[in-house]
């Protein structure tokens, strides 16, 4: 299956993509994680991307589409994937249609996780990520067993620079102006299912699996 996770920053796209990836045994591809890895490795692309990420802006379409095109052409994507954080602009959505056409595939579903703004801010300010495996935690809603340490791999947890309040507000504005219009784009294509994201994590996963016809 080829699935896109759509929704504002903090909606739970990464959290749900991880859960679905485990249950459905398909890849979770996060453009944010790809960029953060490139920043950590100090590649030329990473250094370029960091300028945009730090200010809460989007990395330019040509860079982002380039890395996604390369990643989706890899053999391990043939069985399907869950795209998290891409597409984020109308141009990226059209490019994705083109890339999938080249690969002779098509999108199966777009899962739109909706969450109110106040909840998003609380989720982003408490988010913690594993430096090593990118597993997601929250200081209150999904704390690790041992503070600051990843349950899965023992890696160190950190707070993303762009989860500071001022950058969060900027990212939410960028989402509303550039990404939210994709809800209409995918609804018109008959691919969109809206999932109520203000519920506990397990219930959100259940609702998504049911929408994908995978429950039970
Ligand atoms: P996104 O990928 O959409 O930006 P994340 O999956 O990183 O969002 O989730 C943002 C934060 O909210 C994380 O700290 C995560 O642990 C927490 N979170 C995700 N889903 C829920 C939920 N249903 N209830 C409470 N907290 C959640
Ligand atoms: P995320 O981890 O999805 O919250 O993404 C973190 C940051 O990476 C974003 O704020 C952007 O700067 C950048 N980014 C991730 N995905 C994209 C994308 N599809 N297009 C442009 N920038 C992106």
Kindly summarize this structure in a few lines.
The protein has helices at residues 13-24, 31-40, 44-55, 61-72, 90-102, 117-125, 165-179, 181-188, 201-211, and strands spanning 2-6, 27-30, 81-84, 109-114, 127-130, 136-138, 157-158, 192-196.
List keywords for this structure.
216 residues; alpha/beta; binds adenosine-5'-diphosphate; single chain; binds adenosine monophosphate
Structural overview:
The chain is globular and about 45 Å long. Helix content is 47%, strand content 15%. Helix 1 (13-24) packs across helix 9, helix 4 runs parallel beside helix 5 and helix 6 (117-125) packs across helix 7 (165-179). It contains nine helices and eight strands. The strands form two sheets. It has a five-stranded parallel beta sheet, with helices on both faces. The protein has helices at 13-24, 31-40, 44-55, 61-72, 90-102, 117-125, 165-179, 181-188, 201-211; strands spanning 2-6, 27-30, 81-84, 109-114, 127-130, 136-138, 157-158, 192-196. It has 216 residues and is an alpha/beta fold. It binds adenosine-5'-diphosphate (ADP) and adenosine monophosphate.
Give the cofactors and ligands.
adenosine-5'-diphosphate, adenosine monophosphate
The termini sit apart by 18 Å
> Which radius of gyration do the C-alpha atoms yield?
16 Å
Q: Record the strand order, biggest sheet.
A: 2-3-1-4-8
Q: Name the overall outline.
A: globular
Q: Secondary-structure element sequence?
A: EHEHHHEHEHEEEHHEH
Q: What's the total helix number? A: 9
């Amino acid at each position: 299956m080829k699935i896109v996770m759509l929704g504002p920053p903090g909606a739970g796209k990464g959290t749900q993509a991880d859960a679905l990836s485990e249950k459905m045994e398909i890849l979770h591809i996060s453009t944010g994680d790809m960029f953060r890895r490139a920043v950590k490795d100090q590649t030329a692309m990473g250094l370029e991307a960091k300028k945009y990420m730090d200010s809460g802006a989007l990395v330019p379409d040509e860079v982002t589409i380039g890395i996604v095109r390369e990643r989706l052409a890899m053999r391990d994507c043939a069985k399907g994937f869950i795209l998290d954080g891409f597409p984020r602009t109308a141009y990226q959505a059209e490019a994705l249609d083109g890339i999938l056409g080249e690969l002779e595939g098509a999108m199966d579903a777009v899962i739109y996780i909706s969450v109110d703004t106040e909840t998003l801010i609380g989720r982003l300010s408490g988010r913690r990520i594993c430096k090593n495996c990118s597993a997601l935690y929250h200081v209150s809603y999904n704390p690790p067993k041992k503070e600051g340490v990843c349950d899965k791999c023992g890696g160190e947890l950190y707070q993303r620079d762009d989860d500071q309040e001022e950058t969060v507000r900027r990212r939410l504005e960028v989402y509303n102006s550039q990404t939210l219009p994709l809800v209409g784009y995918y609804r018109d294509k008959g691919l969109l299912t809206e999932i109520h994201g203000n519920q506990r994590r397990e219930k959100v996963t259940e609702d998504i699996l049911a929408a994908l016809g995978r429950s039970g």
